[in-house]
């Protein structure tokens, strides 16, 4: 915004009234200088971006505290940059110190084989689910009752309203069909 004269006290008055566009004007006007101060204080561009963001967040939050000196709020923003950096550095130091207090990580066993087994089991489950879904409903019912829920032949017969001998023969055929589907249709 070089070349254009901005009346910062007027802009600050609008900011204090809650005008986000006026705050955007202050941000555009002073962002680069605040960032340059932050980069001088911090060890990285990333940290300087974080400090700059917090400075402008605090500027919005504490907008009624901003002071105009010689027609500009840049002095207030730069002092806030120093303040935010000190807090940022202190918090970072406490975090590093806290990490130092933790015991060293214990050796963890390699879980790759367990994960492989689980993935294989999940794949088998999915194949079984698909195979069961393709069976006729009566085969699904017999397998559900006798195999999955382990009901006796007599209990399954009573639940389905058929003779126990019919349950046995249907169960045998359903198991054969399911095995065939699980083996890819091969016999």
Question: So, the CATH homologous superfamily of the largest domain?
Answer: RNA polymerase sigma factor, region 2, helix turn helix motif
Helix-strand category: mainly alpha
Total discrete domains? 2
**Helix percentage range:** over 70%
Give the C-alpha Rg: 36 Å
CATH fold-level assignment of the largest domain: Rna Polymerase Sigma Factor, Chain: A
Give the count of helical stretches: 8
Query: Mean pLDDT, rounded to whole units?
Result: 89
Distance between the termini: 80 Å
Q: What is the helix/strand order?
A: HHHHHHHH
Task: Report the β-strand fraction as a percent range.
Answer: under 5%
CATH class of the largest domain: Mainly Alpha
Shape type: elongated
For the sheet with most strands, the description reads: none
Task: Count every beta strand, where a strand is a DSSP E run of 2 or more residues.
Answer: 0
What can you tell me about this protein's structure?
With 187 residues, the chain is an all-alpha fold. It has two domains: 8-101, Rna Polymerase Sigma Factor, Chain: A; 131-187, Orthogonal Bundle (Arc Repressor Mutant, subunit A), CATH 1.10.10.10. It has eight helices and no strands. It has helices spanning 8-16, 20-41, 45-61, 74-101, 112-134, 137-148, 153-160, 164-182. Helix 1 crosses helix 2 (20-41), helix 2 crosses helix 4 and helix 6 crosses helix 8 (164-182). The chain is elongated, with a radius of gyration of 36 Å. It starts with 7 loop residues before the first helix and ends in a 5-residue tail after the last helix.
């Amino acid at each position: 915004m070089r070349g254009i004269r901005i009346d910062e006290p007027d802009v600050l008055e609008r900011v204090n009234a809650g005008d986000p566009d006026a705050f955007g004007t202050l941000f555009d006007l002073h962002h680069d200088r605040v960032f340059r101060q932050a980069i001088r204080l911090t060890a990285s561009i990333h940290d300087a971006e974080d400090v700059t963001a917090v400075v402008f967040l605090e500027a919005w939050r504490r907008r009624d505290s901003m002071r105009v000196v010689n027609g500009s709020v840049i002095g207030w923003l730069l002092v806030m940059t120093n303040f935010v950096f000190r807090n940022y550095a202190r918090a970072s130091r406490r975090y590093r110190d806290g990490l130092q207090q933790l015991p060293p990580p214990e050796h963890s066993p390699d879980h790759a084989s367990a994960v492989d087994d689980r993935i294989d089991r999940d794949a088998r489950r999915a194949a079984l689910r698909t195979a069961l879904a393709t069976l006729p409903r009566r085969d699904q019912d017999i397998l559900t009752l006798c195999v999955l829920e382990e009901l006796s032949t007599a209990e399954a017969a009573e639940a389905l309203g058929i003779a126990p001998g019919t349950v046995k023969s249907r169960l045998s055929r359903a198991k054969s069909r399911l095995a065939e589907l699980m083996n890819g249709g091969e016999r």
